[in-house]
Automatic annotation (TrEMBL):
It is found in: Membrane. InterPro entries: GtrA_CellWall_Glycosyl (IPR051401), GtrA_DPMS_TM (IPR007267). This is GtrA/DPMS transmembrane domain-containing protein. The chain crosses the membrane at residues 12-35, 41-58, 79-97, 103-123. It is a multi-pass membrane protein. The keyword Transmembrane applies. Belongs to the GtrA family. GO terms for biological process: polysaccharide biosynthetic process. Keywords: Membrane, Transmembrane, Transmembrane helix. It comes from Aquibium oceanicum. Residues 15-129 form the GtrA/DPMS transmembrane domain. Pfam families: GtrA_DPMS_TM. GO terms for cellular component: plasma membrane.
Amino acid sequence: MTVLRSVWDGYPGLRFLVVGGSCAVLYFAICLTLIEVGDMGPAPASAITYFICFWISYGAQREIAFRSTRSHSITLVRYAIWHLFGATAVSLGTAYASEASDLSPAFAAIVSTVLCGIASFFISSRWVFRQG
């Protein structure tokens, strides 16, 4: 158990993946439900899902993944700026990819979200939750 604890404590990237992966599963569950059951288009489904998941992922990323001690007045504003950009990119990317190609809306949402997630680690660690 000590080895697992030291790995968990020593690698913010691992914590980010676990937290981000959990939030991604939640995101996909909500988004796909809105698309498939709610008969909603991919762009509005992505935007609504982002709004719901924003608060959960902010708290989890701040407290668990990056263990930030910076003020919420700094991190929340930066997180909101980043995620406003990210939500727009994912929504437009999903809509474009599903309309301009033979990709299903679900697969287009997966591709857009994965690409945004990769960018999110670097932006979050170097700007949003950067210590000091």
